[in-house]
Prior knowledge:
By secondary structure, chain A is mostly helical. The first copy, chain A, has ten helices and no strands.
Amino acid sequence: MRSETNLVTADIPTTDARRGRPRDARCDQAILDATLELLVGGIGNLSIDAVAARARVGKATIYRRWSTKEALVVEALGSDTVTITTPDTGTLRGDLEHYFHHVLERLADAKGSDVLPHLIEAACYDPVVRESLEHYITRRQTPVREVLSRAIARGELSAEVDVDVMVDLLLGPLMYRRLLSHFPVDQRFIDHVLDLVL
Amino acid sequence: MRSETNLVTADIPTTDARRGRPRDARCDQAILDATLELLVGGIGNLSIDAVAARARVGKATIYRRWSTKEALVVEALGSDTVTITTPDTGTLRGDLEHYFHHVLERLADAKGSDVLPHLIEAACYDPVVRESLEHYITRRQTPVREVLSRAIARGELSAEVDVDVMVDLLLGPLMYRRLLSHFPVDQRFIDHVLDLVL
Amino acid sequence: MRSETNLVTADIPTTDARRGRPRDARCDQAILDATLELLVGGIGNLSIDAVAARARVGKATIYRRWSTKEALVVEALGSDTVTITTPDTGTLRGDLEHYFHHVLERLADAKGSDVLPHLIEAACYDPVVRESLEHYITRRQTPVREVLSRAIARGELSAEVDVDVMVDLLLGPLMYRRLLSHFPVDQRFIDHVLDLVL
Amino acid sequence: MRSETNLVTADIPTTDARRGRPRDARCDQAILDATLELLVGGIGNLSIDAVAARARVGKATIYRRWSTKEALVVEALGSDTVTITTPDTGTLRGDLEHYFHHVLERLADAKGSDVLPHLIEAACYDPVVRESLEHYITRRQTPVREVLSRAIARGELSAEVDVDVMVDLLLGPLMYRRLLSHFPVDQRFIDHVLDLVL
DNA sequence: GATTAACCGAGACGGTACGTCACGTCTTTAA
DNA sequence: TTAAAGACGTGACGTACCGTCTCGGTTAATC
């Protein structure tokens, strides 16, 4: 399974079929778990040495799978399989309000987290991280895209609307305010955005 | 001058008047120059040691002035005094198109730059950097705010619109797409955003 | 043949007859060849990984045969079957001069070789290597012993002389000077030694 | 003092006079002490990490002074300032017997030590270690040389005898037997050697 | 003019983490 | 059972920066 969807793993030669001792899946899991556990202390305090120690694994075993710390972190975050449920309230506005409500909660929980900003920076250097990050982001956008699609199907939204742009328009302001502005990201802000966009 | 607007410089006691040898202004400049020169290689390759070596300055001379690497970088970027002109085409749409045109150009120039993302991350840890970053961002938003204000004055835009939110709504999607998405930031995208927001 | 004289090989159970796949003799040869080839770069750069890679052999295949790197090296060197001829010039002095002449030539060839010193060190840890090293040394001493025996038989040397000590007295200074001193090991030195000992 | 006689220290630029913070002599001592303490466990178990930890010193502080582990060990051994007293019994034979008696004691104490063999090997690679090792060896030979000089002054030994060769002749067999032979290095052996040489 | 205090360059200091290498063992498929 | 391949835990390697600290030596304002 990992070999199919893996975007960030260090290159595996895969010369032919599979020769030699296969990788131990328990190692993958132990490493990812350790990463998530250490991640709560901020990505700045997350060292490969620490992950290796906590996962009771050699460092080489980590480097064999992920070429950089960020690649590892992205995958660890991705394995955080909190299923994002797609709301269905009947109206686009209702669905979005529902979705943003959850987002606000998550923001409040992990407020001040430096993980995403760090990955954004890492993505500048490492195209693999970049790709993986985009993959992660896309996954998180899924509910919004579905909500929008349904709205178009219902005729509530013009079929001419570019869903990609619409997603950026809904999520971009939120991210922008959080990362770069001193204004609060709260319910009032969400309402304003929805008022203006819809 | 520096002492007035400086937000990130390390505390200077300046207990009384000033005794002892005064700081050498040429050092400030040499350090900032060295920083800008090394910054082209990415902020990841910018070490204090390297800056000190290139500026032919002791490390302590840097730390005496800036408490962190990011504080130094922010100030070095601040000396990048490209004045952002506020367009005035008569219509809000025209003004914004004009403004975004410039932004696109800048993005194309320094594409893939990691400086802003890095500062965003640094701002998570260091409130001084955060403040300075917001200050920098606000400065860059000035033209948009002015354009919006004029539109409201002209009655082209409802007076009820929250300008702060409107700014996020215009700039957020752009930043979001640039940092997190694989979709291109181009004229077409700008048009779409303006179509939907206005 | 190997199984008879082998002193350092890892234990082979050979419990009963032979079951399973028999060992491939070509592996032995490939490993020894690879070892000798890599040995020219110094024993410090000789890793089991490298030998395995060069011999196109699994590491386990090496460990199955030799328990340590040094055991492997000793055996590889052992295949260096330069027969040491015993000179017979009629006089002890002449025989020894003849023998040392050859030794000087060999020293000049492989000067600076680190193999013997390394084995000496390895012998400190591993009694098997120690034994094998002594065996190797004894083999190289054979001509001297024979020459001395003949001298005693001829009455040229007192029958009371301890041949073992005499051998150390002749070869020790040479080795000592080569390994630990900055003085040259040359014909003049040999002459001096012979003058003093005989 | 160190700066005068130091043979193995990593190159100090010494661009001019002395700029920058001078090296802390206490670090030198702490490192050498730690090295000697750890050396009892064999040189194979002596890691730079361990020395640094025990000396409560950063690894860089070690590498700043000694480029290799062996260079460090040699200097540590050299700092072992057990003064080797020169015996004076009145006769050459008596002096040498006295000296060898001490040597045998030392051998018995540190029997099986791998330090010297290891340094001999290291000297093959690193000319600095080689030089330093020779220096160390020469220092240990001092009593023998003095004893021989006195014997020549007394007329007990021909003035034509090359002292350097004589030293090799006396010490070489001992070292040779210890490192390469299975014969014991005992009083009997010493007596034999002295009988034959004198 | 002497004192004093902060500056300056240089670079040593104790640390932390890095990414690599080799070790010797283990685990797979294939012969 | 051996073979090739290569993953595994371990542990040391030597390097790079970090931010702090000492040096000898300036450079003014104060005494």
